[in-house]
Design goal:
By secondary structure, the chain is α/β, with parallel strands linked by helices. It is built from eight helices and seven strands, in the order E-H-E-H-E-H-E-H-E-H-E-H-H-H-E.
Length: 255
Amino acid sequence: MTSLPRTPSFRLDGKRALVVGASSGIGLACASALAEAGAEVCLAARREAQLQDAVAAIRAEGWMAHALALDVSDVETTASVISQHGPFDVLVNSAGLARHGAAEATQLDDFDAVMDVNVRGAYFLCQAVAKGLLAVGKAGSLISISSQMAHVGGIDRSVYCASKFAVEGFTKAMAIEWGPKQIRVNTICPTFIRTPLTEQTFDQPDRVKWIEEKIKLGRTGVVEDIMGAVLYLATDASALVTGTAMMVDGGWTAD
């Protein structure tokens, strides 16, 4: 009788995951997805009160979670904390900053603030988690929440686009370097997702019209749209996937 192949596991039992930017929105959704799949999840963010609420909600489901105060823009402290609490089998970096405005009006402080979190912080966060895995010879999956704006331009988003294009670049380079050690590095690139942090955009009718015209599936995103993608990239289901961007954009970038 023919021996049938089996679907690789979408479970994370026995794995430890670090989710940064996990106090709300996409980060919280990712933490919830990984915890539901059996991972012990460390939720990290700057907002401690919200973080504790999120951890309590996950634990109430019977899943494993704990909180870790972390600001990725403080590179040295972040590296030290990860060294103390790691190694982590999975990293999801959902920490990010956006300061939108016309390119000709960009202020130096705004540019530096966005790059400090989205590029510098993200780069050294990946480095810190990878170092922990390399030190003990473990495989791992590093996932950055990037954006469709890492692949296209957008109105009033020159700085944000620049930061996310940079994330895609270092993701590919890290994937090449760490691939032989079985550390995979990928991004998830969402379209506009409704979260508390994006309500300012959704409060502008002209922007909503522009967004809805671009999304081929005819609707904006919700955090649940990201959960399957992060689970796939975190587990053995994506064992041969590295150095790539998973588009969760409703067809925005298909043009």
